[in-house]
Amino acid sequence: MTINELLYDFIEIYGKSIWTYSTYSLNLRHYRTYIKPYIGEEQIEKVTTKFIEEFYVKLLDVPSPSQLRENCSPNTIKLIHKLLNSAFKRALIWKLIKENPVENAIRPKEQLKPRDIWTIDVLKEANELCMDPNLKLAMNIAFSSTLRLGEILALEWDRVYLNTNRPYLYIDRILQRVEMEAYYELNGRDVYKIFSQKTKNSKSILVMKKPKTESSVRKVYIPNTLVGMLREHYEILGNYKKSNVNFEDNNLVFCSRTGTPIEPRRISKLFQMFIQENNLPKVCFHSLRHTSVTYKLKLTNGNLKAVQGDSGHATIKMITDVYSRIIDEDRMNNADLIEESFYNNNKNAKINLKENSNESLANLEKLLATESGKRLLEAINGVLEDVK
């Protein structure tokens, strides 16, 4: 069996049943561009770890189809490695080979560049400067609710709960453009709705679909200011409907004046134009979600579980890996407090600790004032009576 034959079976049996549309399209592109033309005819039983490592080195000189870079990058090789490793693992389970030569292969080290994000002051300034109603609302939802852009643009009014005691957004779908080939090969899996095509010869379609992971389905509570913004936005859309008899009502929170959905790339483009016009620090729209997680970690003193509930990350580890610098800052502060209060016997540190104690006491009093707090107090008093 050749690598081509293995990849074909792997994609047909495993990939089509497991992968999302974007993963399917990306893996297929990498297979066709880099794997098939260079090592596709190699017999899998003859493949060694050395062979795979030499292949990775050669890829660094292979031209990239992307206009953004000249050659295949270490980051792309990382994804190719992941695809090959998964396929050869399956070949091992299928008893086609005796060992996986890809698993321990060393690949060129990818360049990890920290994502630039806006500070709270910059975000406040941007909020005051932004005049585009859709962009401004999207920016505020991304920050306050920690949503992905696809989740924001998929919001429908029957999933926006503004008239409850604690207003919230219910997130259970995303807006995404998918390649036609992937859509048909995966039989339209997890797609709720297809939006009308602008051009007949388009190779992709805009869909409303199920999120990638179950953890992405969540309820996100929103601040009162955002509630007001959403109500105002609802009135604006009402005026669009009244003034346009051909308004296409898709029940979307974000739509054009004719009711059609707004694509993620449109918001991203508007965001970049807004940054350039106002000379703001250059970041991508997704960075607002990172600003949100960073700020919430600070506000909650590192409450990872609460932040994960808003962000929809599959695991807490994903948050600790990406935002370890923020978490480490608070841990450094802990070390400084110990140094000043215990080792240096610093009076100022004692005062700070006393203030922290007073704050903790105030928080405890608030807790005991709640129903659950009262029940807890009754239980403690009951135990004390038994002891007496």
Helix-strand pattern, N to C? HHHHHHHEEEHEEEHHHHHHHH
Anisotropy-based shape: globular
Report the biggest beta sheet as strand number plus sense, adding barrel if it closes. 3 strands, antiparallel
Mean pLDDT over all positions: 84
**What are the low-pLDDT stretches, counting only 5+ consecutive residues below 50?**
none
| Strand fraction | 5-15%
Explain what the structure shows.
With 388 residues, the chain is mostly helical. The protein contains 16 helices and six strands. It has a three-stranded antiparallel sheet with strand order 1-2-6, with no helix packed on it. A hairpin with a 6-residue loop joins strand 1 and strand 2 (168-171). Helix 2 (21-39) crosses helix 4 (74-93) and helix 6 (133-145) packs antiparallel against helix 9 (224-243). The longest helix is centred in the C-terminal third of the chain and has 23 residues, at 347-369. The protein is globular, with a radius of gyration of 26 Å. It starts with a helix and ends with a helix. The model has no long low-confidence stretch (mean pLDDT 84).
